[in-house]
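Escalation from tier 1.

The customer reports that the assembly of two entities below gives different structure tokens on two consecutive runs. Tier 1 could not reproduce it. I'm attaching the input and our single run for tier 2 to review.
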Amino acid sequence: MNDQSATFTTNELITAYLARQIEDDDLAFVGVGTNGRAFTLAVGIPLAAVRLAQMRHAPGACVYWGNLLEPDLSEIPEKLTQDSLTHWQAAACPPDTGTKCDMLMRRAFDVCFNSAAQIDRFGNMNITAIGDYRQPKVRLVGCLAQPEHAAFVRRPYIVVDLDKRTFVEEVDFITSVGHYKGGSSRTETGLSEGGPRLVVTNKAVFDFAPGSKAMRLVSLHPGVTREEVLDLMGFVPEVSEDLGETPAPDAEELRLIRHDIDPNHILLRV
Amino acid sequence: MKEKLTSLDTALAPIASGASVMFGGSLLRRQPNAAVRHLIARGVKDLTVLSWAGTTAIDMLAAAEAIRRYEGIYVGLFNYGLAPNFRRGVQSGRIEVRDFSETAMVARLRAAAQGLRFLPIRTLFGSDIAARNPEQIKTFACPFTGEPVQAVAAAETEFTIIHGYKGDKYGNVQWPVVRDTDDMDQPMAAAAKRLIVTVEKIVSHEEVKRQPSLTYIPGQWVEAIVEVPHGAHPVACDTIYDEDDAHMRDYVARCATAEGAAAYLDEFARSVADHEAYLDKIGAAHLASLDVSGGAQ
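Tier 1 run:
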């Protein structure tokens, strides 16, 4: 295992880890946007993870990507321009995005992947504005369907890099409600049961502790220390009594990621 | 049937400063950019602007300081990053924003299409989207179960501008069989009060009649239709042309400052006589390099 630790990237580790969270017949929502590292976190890793799950243990798992339901993930084009999205083969392409919204509200989705500019200890996220809402320091993109994902999807996975500016005590604007203020406060707002399942970062994995619903460190990636993780956070998370190491990808997973899923390094480039 | 084919000038003439306008398109597809450049050249200001996932159309209007208030799900430049001019406008306090999530915006459009004041959702409990907008998002008890639901106000604007694929002189607008459907253009058209459509190409009514199920915007709903080839440039009109990567990069680079953005608008919106002159400026060879229609157009 130690010999192998030098032979995989953090993106491959996260991809294999997330793939193992996907169950057979899961319907997972993946977004289409952004660039650079944000693309890898929001689009690249999630698509690669679902594809890996399809190839390994969850042949019935599928994706709703953009407005494509069950797109064929067996071939990723070398360049993602508009035209390559238009001609991506899929089982269905509903007439407008309203269909996806209806499916979200009826809780048709098992899994979603989200990232954010800010996340707090209860998994509330902000992609709207940093600073004061009316005259912000940084205006971000708005909200898209992140509130729906957090409200209605059964197992949201948050994929974000660990950073003090991202992991904050309190988000400046609650775009999407996670476990709200902890405990049973989420359902008391009127939202249904749920909230983020895991926070998967470039250094460690967190869940949300039963009861308090506060973010809890559950595993460190190989070679990462607890101190390193805590130094990168703006709040102190709970720490699991069973704190362990994030399981490394096996040889088969690495082979599939490198040779079948992302041979052109489009999904896991940065 | 009433003929509705007209010029951009005539079609957009009723839109004055202070108007509320919904813009169609989503991300890098079918932003009504030619219409937006025309409004900017006319110096229209103080607009209340609504959109789905807005990119260049909203950001250019922000650069022109033409937006007083924005309501929608997203303003950014997709894989080209945040929307630089919209950011400046909001951060300076010049643009007032009310954010709506996707199910909220869908409900707002459907309510307007049905002539209702609102439709209910249950998405935004606990969210600051609702907390910061008590005027348009109100919690009430479901009359059947007593459970809380949130009423979101209908998306009612005076004007709606959509860029479509092709249409006839009566305003019937058709989409291709295979296209990128990740947008809300048809629900926006259904919700519109005064609908202005620009299309890549005007085709015969006979062509439309042969495949009426492709008509996603019936002429019945349309006030004016205008032929505006490459009307979404520099973004894509899916199945016809791709986004103009070089132009988008240049746009982002110039818009690093407000002065650069103003110079961009001077060059591409204010100093060109009309859309034809704009296309001449971009260049026929360059436009041809963006073609993805395979000669179908």
